[in-house]
User: What shape does this take?
Amino acid sequence: MSSELRYTANTQLEHLHARYTGTGHADLSKYEWLTHQHRDTLASIVGHPTLASYLAIAENEAIGRIKFEMTERMLQPCGPPPRKDDD
Amino acid sequence: MHLYNLTLQPPTAILQAIVGNFSGARQQEIIVSHGTRIELLRPDPQSGKVSTVIATDVFGSVRSLAAFRLTGGSKDYAIVGSDSGRVVILDYDPKTSSFVKLHQETFGKSGARRIVPGQYLATDPKGRSMMIASMEKSKLVYILNRDAAANLTISSPLEAHKSNAIIHHIVGVDVGFENPMYAALEVDYSESDQDPTGEAFNRTEKMLTYYELDLGLNHVVRKWSEPTDPRANLLVQVPGGQLASSDRYDGPSGVLVCCEDHIIYRHMNSPQHRVPIPRRKHPLEDPNRGVIITTAVMHKMKGAFFFLLQSEDGDLFKVTIEHQEQDVTALKIKYFDTVPVASSLCILKSGFLFVASEFGNHYLYQFLKLGDDDDEPEFSSTNYPGDGMRDPSSPLPREYFKPRPLENLALADEMESLDPIIDSKVLNILPNSDTPQIFAACGRGARSTLRTLRHGLEVEESVSSELPGIPNAVWTTKRTESDPYDSYIILSFVNGTLVLSIGETIEEVQDTGFLSSSPTIAVQQIGADALLQVHPHGIRHVLSDRRVNEWRVPEGKTIVTATTNKRQVVVALSSAELVYFELDLDGQLNEYQDRKAMGSTVLALSIGEVPEGRQRTPYLAVGCEDQTVRIISLDPESTLETLSLQALTAPPSSICIADMLDASINKSHPTMFVNIGLQNGVLLRTVLDPMNGQLTDTRTRFLGTRPIKLVRVQVQKSPAILALSSRSWVNYTHQNLMHFTPLIYDNLDYAWSFSAELSPEGLIGIAGNLLRIFVIPKLGTKLKEDVIPLSYTPRKFVTHPENNYFYLIEGDHRTLGQDAAQNKLKELKQAGKRIDEEVINLPPDIFGRPKAPAGTWAANVRVIDPIEGKTIAVVPMDGNEGVFSIAVVPFSARNNELHLVVGTAADTTVSPRTCTQGYLRTYKFVDDGKGLELMHKTELDDVPLALLAFQGKLIAGVGKSLRLYDIGKKKLLRKVENKAFTSAIVTLETQGSRIIVGDMQESIQYVVYKAPENRLLTFADDTQPRWVTASTMVDYNTVAAGDRFGNIFVNRLDDKISDQVDDDPTGAGILHEKSILMGAPHKTNMLCHFHVGDLITSIHKVSLVAGGREVLLYTGLHGTIGILMPFVSKEDVDFISTLEQHMRTEQPSLVGRDQLAWRGYYVPIKAVVDGDLCETYARLSAQKQSAIAGELDRTVGEVLKKLEQMRVTSSGF
Assistant: This one.
C-alpha cells in the first residue's frame, strides 16, 4: 500500500469516527467501550416508547421522569474515567 | 410451522398528540401517535365527544410528531420523526380520508439510534422551517416553503450539529418574522469524559443554546449559549414577535426552562425570572424529592397567552407572563387542577383540553374557567429577590398548594385504553357465552383495573317493558314521508295486532286504520302520506284521510311472506305465487297483471330501498323451500323474469337486500348486498351485480344455532343489517369498511329501527314478552370492556381450578402501604403536627399516592369474582413486602389440597435487583376460596419472580436459582436446586417432568426433573440471548415466547433429543454430556420470529371461536392484543406470502420504514406473515387491487374473501 493511499484511508476513517459517534477502533479502552454501550442503551430506552413505559411501571415513576433521568445519566454513565498511567 | 399474525386490538397508548386543522376545515383535529400507529381524532365541540376519523398502521415506530402551518395557510401538516432515518411530512386528505405522504427526506440509518435524528422535533411558529434532532449531537434544519403552485416544498438539510453534546430538548423560539430561531437544552460531555478526578463532571453545565437559521445565507449559526439550571428538562415556547397589523408585541419571546422544582423564563439579552413549582401539602410527601414538569402546553388567545404545565404527579399549573412589550415584568404560577399524568396535552380553540394519559384511559375536559379569579395562591417571580435569580444555584423557598377536585375543568369524554396490559388470561367463564373472554390486568398505580374484554358491541338500553303476550314481530313507522320521527309501534301477535302511538308516553291507539284482529306480516309507510299493512288475508292501504283500500287474497290462499319499500310491495302466497304491486303517480297501489309461480313454497322475500330519484328498485330476491335463492327482475321491460339462481345448503329463513358502502369493493358508491340467512344459522353474504342481477362473491359466516332473521335498520345515519340468531349481530360500515360484530345483549326475537325525539338513532326489539328500546353508542370498537378497579399496579393473576375466582397480586414501588401510611400519620400526629384530613382523603385514583423513597412497597393479594365483576377480599402484605409471583399448588403431601403460594420480597429495589429477604407465603383457601389464611412464610435469599405447581410440589424461580419445594408444617421444604441460570428466572411452564424456564436475559431453557435421583437438569437452551417476558408451551417440544424488545418467537427441541432425554432414567447422560457454547448440551431451533413492536406481556394458546383451531394470543404493554394463527396448508402459505410481497411494494410505510426491516428489527423475520399489512389490501385503489389479484391468478373478491376468512376462522373478529 502506498503511503499516500494509507494517508487517505486514515483520514477517511477519522472522518467516519467523527461522523458516527460510538464507532469503535483498535485502541478503544474498556472504559470508553463501556461508556459507549451505556449511552447507546440509555438512548435506546428513551427512543423506544415501550421500553420507557416498561421502566416507568417497574420504577413507578412518570415516563417523563424516566426519560429525564436516562438522559441525565448519559453524561457519565460509568463514573469518571480511570487515571492514565503515564510511566 | 408458518404463522399468520393478526392484530385484534391495536395499541391504545398515546405517546404524543398534536392539534391542528389537518383537514383544512374550520374544525380542529388531533393526531395521536400510538407508537406503531397514527390516528386522527375529531372532537365534536357540540357534544364534547371524541371520534376516530382514521387510524393507520405505519410499520415503524413514531418517536415524535409536530404540527405546522405555512405562513398564511389555513391547513396544518403533520411532521413525523420516526426510527426510519427519515423525516416525513403528512397531509390528511379529507376526500379519501387518508394520510398522504408529501415529503420524505432521508438523513440517516434506520433504528432508534443515539445520533440519528428523530427523537425531537421543533417547528418555527410561523411555519418557515423545522428542526429534527437526535439524543446526541445531530440537529438538522429544513426550510419549508411553497412553490408557485402553492405546493409545500422542503429544502435540503442544514446541519446544526454539536459533537459530544447530549440533547435534552429542543423548541422553536417565536421571533415573529425575523430569522427562525431554535432553542436547545444541551450538555457537553467531552471534558467530563477526560477528567479522572470527576471535577469536570461536577462542573459540567447544562447550556441553553439558540440556533438561528439565516434565511438569507441559508445557514444555521449558534447565536447564543448560556448555562442554565443543571436539572432542566423541558423547554416551552413563549409567544413573541409583532403583529403584522400593529406595532404591539404578541409576547416577550424566549423560552420557559422547566427544571426540577423551578421554572425559569429566559431569553437572549433579557433578565431571567424564576418561580418555584408549588408542591403538594401532603404530610407523607418525601421532602428530598424534587418535582419536574413532564408536559406543557401554551395557548394563545386574542392578545393574551398562558401556559399549562403538568407536573409528574398530574397537577396542572397555570403559568402567566406579565410583560410590557418585550420586557417581562413577572412570571406567575398557580395551581390549576389535577388530571391524570399525560404524555401530551392539547388545548382546543373550542374550549377543550385533551389529556393523552401516559397510562390508562384518555380524557377530554371542557374548560369551565381559566382559574382567573379564585383564591388559589399565586406565586410571582417579583416576590423573590432579583426576580428569583439573585442566587441561581440555590433553590427558592418551597411553596405549597392544596390539591382539590376539579374546579376549572369538567370531564367531557373518556377514551378507553388498555395500556399497560401487564398480565392476561383467556377463559370462557361468563354464563351464556360461546366464545372466550380476555381478562386483562391493566393500568398502573391507583388507576389500575382488571378488564373483562368481550368481542362485541356495547348496547345501551333505554326502555325495557313487559307486554301482555309474546309478540312475534315489531315495526315502527312514520305517518308521512316528511316526518322526522316514528309515530307508531306495531306489534304482531299470533292472533292479532297491537298499535302503540309514540308521544310523551307510549300508549295503545285504535283508530289507525290497521286491522287489529289478525297478525301482521309487514308494515310500511308508503308514498307521501299513506300507510300499508300486510296481513295473511290481504293488504290494507291506509290513506291519509283514514280511507282504507284493501286488496284481498283469493279464497283458499293466504299471504306467507311479504317485502315492501316506499313504492313497491311483493307478497308471496301459500300457493307459491308472487304478486307484485307498485305505487303509481296518483298514490294508487296497482297490481301487476301477471302472477309469478315459483314452483316451491316461498320462505323469504326482499327488495332494497328505492334508490334516490328512481321509481323502483329493479331486483327482488326470493328464497324458496327447495334451497334456492332467485333474483327476479322488477324492471318494467322484464317484470318477474328470473335473472339468476343460487343454490343453498339449507332452506333460507330470511333475506335482506341492502345498499351499503364497502371501500374494499367500491370506494365511492354503495354496493348492493344480498344477505341470506339460513335455517341452520349460517349467513351468506353475496354481492348483486347491478348490471345483470348475477350473484357473486359469496361469503359465509356462522352466526348461531337458531334460524336467522335479518332486518334492515339505520345505525348512526347509515344503513346496517341486524342479524338475529342465538346471538344478535350487526353488519355496518365504519370508516368506509364493512364490519360484522355481535351485540353484547340478550337474544332478540325481532328488531326494527326506532326513531323518536329522545332517541333519534335507536333500535327496538322484542325478546320473549319484553319490548326493548336501545342504541349502539360506539361503532368500531370490537371489544366491550367491563372494569373492576384495583388499588395498585397488577403484577400477575391466577385462577382457581374449581371456583373460577381470580387471585391477583398487585403492588406498587415507591408507595407506602396502608398500614405504614397510617403508622406514619400517627407518629406525625403524636409529634404535634397538624394533619389536613382533606388532603389525606383525596381519592388516589385521581391524585395518586404520595411518592416514597425507592425500596418502599405497598402490596395486596386480591380475590376477585370475575363473573359478578367484584372484589371479594383483599389481603394486604406487611413488612414492606412487594409481591412478584403467585401460583395455586395442589400439594400431594397434603392429599392434593389446593394452596396459594405468593412470592414476595422485603425492601426490594428494582435496579439493581436486591432485597433484604424474599418470602414464599403459603395460604390456605378458606370459605370456598373467598378468603385466605396464612399458613407460613418461607425465607429466601432473593426475589422469587416465578412460581409454578409441579407434580404435587412447587417449582420456584428464586433469583438465579430454580428450586423445588414441598410443603412442611412450619415452612416449605427445599428439595432440590439448580443454580446454573445467568440472570433471573422470570417464566415457568411445565408438561410431564419437563420444565421450561424463561431467563430474564438468556432466553428459554429446557429443564428436566429426574425424580429417582432428585435432579433438576438443564438439557437444552437457545443460541441467542433473549430478554424473555412471557412464554407458553405450544406442545411438548415447542415453546412460544415474547421478549422485552417486542419480538415473538417459537423455539423447538428436536424430537430425538427429547426422546433421548426422557428415556434416560437418572439423567446421568445429560449430566455428563459436553456443553455446547458454554451452555446446555443441546440447542433448540428457532422456527418463527416476528417483531410485533409492542413489549409482549403474556402469551396464551387458546381457541377463540367455538370449535375453531387453537391460536397463540398475545398481549402487549401498550394495549396490543394480537394472534398468531398457524397456516393449515402449503397453498395458503404460498398465496398469502405472495400477497404480502406485493403489499410491501404497493403499500410503503407512512413513516418511510421498510416493512421487512421493521418486522425484522432485531432478528430477521422468519415464517410469519404480517396479516396487518395484508389486510390493508382492502384500502388499496381498485386498480392496484386488481393488478395484485391478477398476479396471484385470483379475482379481487377471492383475495378479500381469503383475508376475511383467515380473520373470521381464527378469531371470529
